[in-house]
Design brief:
Elements (H helix, E strand, L loop, with lengths): L2 H10 L2 H8 E4 L6 E3 L14 E6 L6 E8 L2
Antiparallel strand pairs: 1-2, 1-4, 3-4
Length: about 70
C-alpha cells in the first residue's frame, strides 16, 4: 500500500480498498487485467467506464487500457 492509498484508507475507511479492488484495468492487446488497487491507484465512488494510457505489466506494450467495474 503506497502513501496515497494509506491516506485515503485512513480518511474514508476500508471501503476504499474494497471498491478499488472491484475496478479492473484491461490491456487492449493481450486482455490481461489487474485491479486498480494492485496498480497503486484508487477508484472510490466512481461510475462509468473510461480509457487510460499505460504500460501493460504482462506484455509490456503501451496502449489505451479500459478501466471498468467488474461484476
Amino acid at each position: 500500500m503506497n502513501g496515497t492509498q494509506r491516506f485515503f484508507t485512513w480518511i474514508f475507511g476500508p471501503g476504499v480498498e474494497r471498491e478499488s479492488r472491484a475496478w479492473k484495468v484491461e490491456c487492449s492487446h493481450c486482455h490481461h487485467s489487474d485491479s486498480v488497487w494492485d496498480l497503486g491507484g484508487i477508484r472510490y465512488k466512481a461510475s462509468g467506464t473510461k480509457r487510460s494510457g499505460g504500460k501493460c505489466r504482462k506484455c509490456g506494450r503501451f496502449s489505451m487500457r479500459k478501466v471498468y467495474r467488474s461484476a
